[in-house]
Amino acid sequence: MNKNKILTSAALIALAALSGAVSRADASAFKDVPAASPYYAYIDELVALGVVDGIAPGVFSPESTLTRGQFAKLAAEAFRLKDPGGSLPFKDLAGHWAAPYVRAAYKAGFVNGTSATAFSPNKPVKREEAAAMVWRYAKKVGLKPTEAPAVSDKPDAWAAEAVGAVIARGWHGVDAAQSAGAWTYRPQAAMNRQEAAALIDLAMMDIPGSLAKAGLIDPLDDWKQLHNRSNVYVAVNSPDYFGGDGKRAARSTTAAGNVVYHTGYDMTSFQTSSYYFTGIAMEKNRYFASADGKTYKEVAAASYPVGASKGGWQQYAEESFALPAKTRYLKVELRGAAKAWSPQLAKVLINRATATVSAKTSRAADGLKVELSTRSQGAAIYYRLNGASPYQPYTGPIRLTDYAVLDAYAVKKGKEASPVRSYKLNGRADFKVDAFGQVAAANFPEKVKSEQELKDDASADAAYYGGLQAPAGLDKYGGLAGSASKYGLKGTGYFAIRQAGGRTVMTTPTGDVFFSLGMNGLHADETYTKVAGREEQYEWLPLYDGAYKPAFVPSDSGSFSFYMANKYRKTGKFPTDAAFYAEAVERLRKWGFNSAGGYSPEQYGKANGFPYVRMLPLDMDWAKLDGISIFDIFAPGAEMKIDQAFAKAVAPNKNDPLLIGYFMGNEYDFHKFYDVVPKLKGSAAIKARLVKMLQDKYQKIDSFNASWGTSFKTFAELRDAALPVSTSASWKDMDQFFRFYLDTFYGTVSRVYRKYDPHHLLLGDRWITTSFHNAKFRDVLAEVEGKYSDAISINYYSYKIETDLLNDVHAKSGKPVLISEFGYGTAEQGLAPLLPNSAANQFERGMRYRNYVEGVASLGYVVGAHWFNYVDQAATGRYWQGIGDWAEHYNTGILNVADRPYKPFLNGVMQTNDEIYKVLLGERAKFYYAFI
After folding, report:
1. In the prediction, which pLDDT does 47 show?
2. pLDDT in the model for residue 209
């Protein structure tokens, strides 16, 4: 039966596209072996195995004839024959370079001379001679003749069986062809180099002991196949978590462990199966190759998840098909500082694996075109869609018009089948978000269209950021150098509130005037979005357990950050939280910012020498209320619990000079106080305290009913009742209770805070704009909080600066104001704009920044303005807000999802930031851009 293994040109083109710059040569290095050549796969395999090479750099000369000596060498190396030494009967081999190879083949019994005393090593080898040499050896190692096919161009009688066997077993390329039931082989013609490559490569697949058959499969049930090992043992527990594998190699301690293999033949590839526990930090195995077992070189291995995780354990296939030439030793190093029992090595294949399947996609009008390929030339590929059985043979590009999960594997004769690799693919044309997390329908000049553009950004970033200079004339904290002596200010060792030139200002620890140009959110949290349940809306999503796992929320396979994925595409690695923060600080300084605002990782400010703020630990479940975000200061033991929390969180930082101060919370719902608190159940301490106040005041229930317009029989009924605030008396009572609540809350927090930190500023609680705009709340908040805080902080989003309202807060509180959040956005890139219609483009956004920051700085009592936020929110909303239009998806950032800075906006930002102290101290008029 003919088993001809001719690959299609299309498949060869796809496979050739995988070739890269590797330490071992491959067929793509030869200019005269095009990827479309029907002999490409055979030449590629033999070059990779080190059996053949070019005749000159970049030249294979595929149609040049081979001599008998050259073919003997080719066969001897392919079948791993050793020169036994001794004499030969062929006089013409004396001193000939081919003598050792002919001797090895002659002693193995599969080559003859052209006469009793001559081998004729320089004579072209005929095709029937080559077939006979190979078939003689095949029979010697156990292969049996098959039914002879009909051959139209008869070989010599002595070669007839060999030619028939070569044709029947498919050990040929297109140089043998069938027509009208008979084969043509051209037996007397000279064999050329590409024809010989096909014969040898295909024969190796069937002939035991040949180079293609060399290799090992180690299930690691024991150590019998190892050359050496260190810090490993055979783990036998919980086989169900490891695909039923009852024995794996695991480490005895958290130190690195390794297993070493040594072979008597060249290693050209390896593939391993390892299991990693997903609940801890993953450190991938490392691989090292050596020719002599002394000097090792690390080898890069591709890594892919296989199947679904079970019990927290995820299988990974790791492979390399480009080991350095003459590799005879392979060291597999297991690493992981978190736990000794992860990872676990389950299987090692050397020279016996089929490479996993890669998928290349391109989008067209009729859907998504998917091309599958494998580095194992000549391997058959099988695939399925959405778990459908059975797998289908891959014959050409697949067209998808809907969202699908594609599973694929490859298998090559004589090799182990590859692990199944899975891809999430979206063939729909109506996706909302493209592969880079950008809004698909939005068109803008900065839109990323390829991964190469992101890679190119790395060098573009270096040039851009390298060309920026931080503002001059600043002290190490970002304050105005020399201003302490100019205004007679002495440093306290910490940030402080002082008077300078008739203005209320903040000062640095050394006494210099400081205006906090802050940036909120120095992290990527707002770039994560919920993708589970709406996968069809995204052009591309990776598998959770693959290379992009760090771009998912930990332990949440349904929430993904395109921003983090783009950082990986751009730089080749995922930034840690510490690295992310450090990079942000370096950029921010050059843009003229001098501090980290709220909701930034607090532990990195000191390490980066960057002034920062903290949040007091008041987000306590026991103090939360239904329907309103305020702190129930009347909860039992509240002050004691606050004291305990502050002792742990506040006291350790009391001597940090880079810490500006603490916020007491963020956007409390004080504007809901009159509506929600009276309707709470009596189980809420704040409601019980309200009832007590009312009972103490009115004494008799009839008096209360008359004032509140109610008909309760006892005060006890008030505890669980929804009290209506509708009469003048009820409003006055709620005014009294609101003031009492604020005084108790701010007073308690301030008292306990000062106990553990007498140095740093208490920066207020970041009022929501709604409360700020309502005089009923604004007045009492300012009056009460002003008694306890060092500054009043407001999250103030506005088209213009409402000077009268800010003046009112400052006057009633007697304290400076810190703008703890503000921002503007545009709809240019498809995101929702902060404050709709405030800016048509990034230039106007920059003008809004200038108007706002210089406007507040010129007031004489505002000590800082903190922009919200560092990176844009995800196009489909922040993940913790779920799926829906209510999930914030604003253009908040100074960077977009591709980590590209909004340069027109930042040009305006830098103009203001560079001269902020001139504006603050009245040395120049505030900037103003007139919006029409």
Report:
1. 82
2. 84
Beta bridge partners, 496, equal 507
Q: Which residue has the tokens 């080190």?
A: 50
CB count within 10 Å of CB 337 equals 11
Eight-class DSSP state of 809 = H
Query: DSSP character for 156?
Result: P
Residue 554 CA: distances (Å) to CA of 279, 310, 406, 545: 9, 17, 25, 11
Q: Which two tokens stand for residue 584?
A: 């942000």
pLDDT averaged over the chain?
A: 93
CB–CB of 593/518 below 8 Å? yes
pLDDT of residue 214: 76
Q: How far apart are CA 807 and CA 814, in angstroms?
A: 10
Residue 905 · residue 845 · CB < 8 Å: yes
Q: How far is CA 585 from CA 521, 582, 716, in A?
A: 12, 5, 57
For every residue of 63-115, DSSP letters joined together read TSBPBHHHHHHHHHHHTT--------S-GGGTT-TTHHHHHHHHHTT----SS
Residue carrying structure tokens 């002919």: 102
Q: Is 155 helix (H, G, I), strand (E, B) or coil?
A: coil
How many residues does the structure list for the chain?
932
At position 534, the amino acid (one-letter code) is: R
DSSP string, 602-670: GGGTGGGT--EEEE-S---GGG-BTTB----TTSTTHHHHHHHHHHHHTGGGTT-TTEEEEE--S---G
pLDDT of residue 48: 74
pLDDT tens sequence across 86-115: 999 999 999 999 999 999 999 999 899 999
Residue 23 pLDDT > 70: no
Q: How far apart are the first and last CA of the chain?
A: 84
- Give the DSSP H/E element, type plus range, for residue 13: helix 9-16
Dihedral (Cα; 912, 914, 919, 921), 10-degree rounding: 160
8 Å CB contact between 766 and 868: no
Q: How far is CA 21 from CA 24, 49, 569, in A?
A: 9, 16, 19
Taking a C-beta distance cutoff of 8 angstroms, is the pair 805, 769 a contact? no
Is 184 exposed, middle or buried, given 0-12, 13-18 or 19+ CB atoms closer than 10 A? middle
CB 398 within 8 A of CB 425: no
Q: What confidence tier does 280 reach under pLDDT thresholds 50, 70, 90?
A: confident
* 340 within 8 A of 348, measured Cβ to Cβ: no
715: left (phi over 0), alpha (psi -120 to 50) or beta: alpha
Alpha carbons 101 and 84: distance in angstroms, whole number: 10
pTM of the model: 0.75
pLDDT digits (tens, 9 = 90+) for 319-353: 999 999 999 999 999 999 999 999 999 999 999 99
What is d(CA 291, CA 298) in angstroms, rounded to the nearest whole number? 12
> Where are any strands of DSSP class E within 531-606?
559-561, 595-596
The C-alpha angle 454, 456, 462, rounded to 5 degrees, equals: 105
Strand runs labelled E in 664-786? 761-762
